[in-house]
Amino acid sequence: MGSVSKTRNEDSEAHLIGIYEIGKLLGSTFDLDKSLHDVLNILASYLEMRHGVVTLDDGTGNQMLAAVTGMGLREARDGALKFPMDAIRPVLEGSMPMVVPSAVGEPSLADYVAEFLDPDDDSLAFLCVPIKTNDKPFGTLSVMRSRESGALRGFQHDIRFLTMVGTLIGQTVGLYRKVLADREQLMEDNARLQKQVIKIKPAARAAGLEDIVGSSDAMGRVFAQVQQAAPTKATVLLRGESGTGKEMVAHAVHMLSKRSDKPFVKVNCAALSESVLESELFGHEKGAFTGAVADRKGRFELANGGTLFLDEIGEISANFQSKLLRVLQEGEFERVGGAKTIKVDVRLVAATNRNLEMAVTKGEFRADLYFRLNVVPIFLPPLRERHGDIPLLADHFLKQFNSENGRKVGITTKALQTLQRCNFPGNVRELENCIYRTATMAHGDVIDEVDLSCRRDLCLSSTLWDGKPGQGQGASHLVPVPTVTHRDPGPAPMSAPASLPAAPAAPAPASYAAPAADPNADVDLNSLDERSRLVQAMERCGWVQAKAARLLGLTPRQIGYALKKYDIEIRQL
Q: Quick one: which of 541, 405, 419, 551 has its CA closest to 478?
C-alpha cells in the first residue's frame, strides 16, 4: 500500500511540474506550431507520455495534424503518419476523453500503432482528450502511455491531467486565432480606407487647416486625407521625414474631428526614458517611486474624450510597446504603482520618421502594435517634393519674423527663386531657420539672393545632401539661372504665386569666349540631361568651377558635389 501512495505522490508532483512548464511555455510565444510541438516534448520528458499528437479544426469542419513527435509536421501531413482520425471522432462528437487500454488490440488503431509497436507488444495504452474552451471541441490531444504506469489508477490521473493541458492548449489556440482575425480585419479596414482616401482629389483647405501652409498637389492630397479621416475614430499614423509638420497635421486632425472641444494632448516619446514615459502616459500613485509625493494623472487620462498625439512612436522600447498595445486594444490601464483599472476614450494620432516596416522585419517593433497604429497612414511629403510651396512658406515665416521683431523685411523674387532650388534636407523647419537667420543678418530691409547663406557658400546643411538616403542629393537638379549682378529696386510682393516662372537661360560670362569652332557653343543647356548640362557648363567656362557655378546658379561647393557624383574628371586647360 505504501508503494502505491508513493507512486501517486510522485506522479502528482510530475503533473504539477508539467502543468507549470506547459503554462509557462504557452504564454511565452505566439509561434503556435513551435509551442504545440514543445508541449508534446514536455509530456514525453516529464510524464513518459510518448507519440503525442495534436489535431485542430482546419476551418472546414475537418481535423488536421497541428503537432506531432518523432517526425516533421509536413512529413506527417503528407501521409507518413497514419493517425486514426476516425477513431478520435467520438472524442470530438461527445466531448469526452477516450482510453484504449491495449492499443495493439484495437482494430481502429492497428495501422497507427503498427508504425512503432510490434504485433505482440501489449504494453501501451492510447489516451485522447478533447481540446476546447467553453464550446464544442475543435481539436484533440492524444498520447501513448505505459499500461504498467497507469494500472494502479486506471489512467484517471492521466486523463484529468491531459484534460487540463487540453484546456490550456484550447485557450492558446483561441487567442491566437482571435489575434489573426483582428489583424486580418485591421488590414481589410486599412485597405478600404486607403482606397477611399486615394480616390479623393486634392481639395481646398477647410476650417482647422488654415495654419498649414501649402497649395501644391502633394499637400492637397494630404489635406484631402486629413478631411476624410478626421471625423472618424480611426487611429491615424503620420509618416514623413523630420521637419515636415507632423505635429501641425495631428492638431488639424483633432480640430476637424468631433472631439475638437476636448483636450489635445501631445507627447514626444523619443524625449523620455521608458520609466518616465510610462509615468507620463499612465500617471502614478502616491509613493509609487521616489519623488511621487502625490497622485498624478497621465496623458491618457488628461486626453480622455479628446485626442492624444504620440510623436516619434517608433522610438519606444520593446517592453513599453506591449504596455501601449494593451491600452490601444482594451482602452484601459493601471497607473504606475496602482491596482485600479482606469478606462479611457482617447483618439490616437501617432507620428514617426522611421521605416516601421523594416523595424518589424528586424524584430525591433511589434507587428501587432504596427497593425494597431497603421490604420490610416498619411504620408507628409518632404519640402523638396513641393518646391512650389516655398514662396508661400517664406512669406509666412517672414511675416512671423517681422511681427516678433517689429521689422518690415521684404524679399526679392530672385531670392525666392534661389530658395526654390534648394533641397532642404531639414524640410520646413530648415526653411524657417533659413528665413529667420537671413532676415536677422540682412543689412537692409530687403533680402536679396546674395544675402542667402547658400549664395555665399556658408550653408552647412548642404553637406547633408551627399549620400543621405531619402534626402535630395546636392546639385541633383541643375537649373540654369541668370547671374546676379545687382539688387532689385525693392521687395517682391509677398503674395508671390505658388509656382514661379522659369528663369531664362543664362548667357556665358563675359570673361569667357567660346571658341568659334565649338559646335556646342549654342546648345541650350535646358535641353540636356543633368550630366551633359554639367559637362557643357564646365566646357563653356574653361573648366573653372566658380564660373560654371555662376552659370548654373549653384555654389562652388554644389558644383564640386555634382562633379564627384557623376564621376566627371576635371580637365586642365
A: 551
CATH code (residue 400): 1.10.8.60
Query: Do the domain assignments include residue 192?
Result: no
From 381, 410, 440, the end of a domain falls on 381
Number of continuous H segments (helices) and E segments (strands) in the chain: 20, 16
Q: What is the dihedral of CA 62, 67, 73, 75, to 10 degrees?
A: -70
Do 48 and 21 fall within a single domain?
yes
| pTM (2 d.p.) | 0.50
Q: What is the CATH number of the domain that holds 161?
A: 3.30.450.40
Measured N-to-C along each axis, helices 2-26 and 156-198 cross at an angle, to the nearest 10 degrees, of: 10
Strands 341-343 and 332-334: antiparallel
Distance, in Å, from the CA atom of 167 to the CA atom of 144, rounded to the nearest integer, reads 19
The tens place of each residue's pLDDT in the chain, 573 residues long, gives 444 454 556 666 777 777 888 888 887 777 888 889 889 988 888 778 888 999 998 888 889 999 998 888 888 888 888 899 989 999 998 889 999 888 887 888 888 888 777 666 777 889 999 998 877 899 999 998 887 655 445 678 888 889 999 989 988 888 888 888 888 888 887 676 555 444 444 444 555 677 788 888 889 899 999 999 999 999 999 999 999 999 999 999 999 999 999 999 999 998 888 888 888 899 888 877 777 778 889 899 999 999 999 999 999 988 889 889 888 888 888 888 888 889 999 999 999 999 999 999 888 999 999 999 999 999 999 998 898 899 999 999 999 999 999 998 999 988 898 898 888 888 999 999 999 999 998 888 889 888 888 877 677 666 555 444 444 433 333 333 333 333 343 434 333 333 333 333 333 333 333 333 344 455 666 667 778 888 888 888 888 888 888 888 787 777 887 887 777 877 765
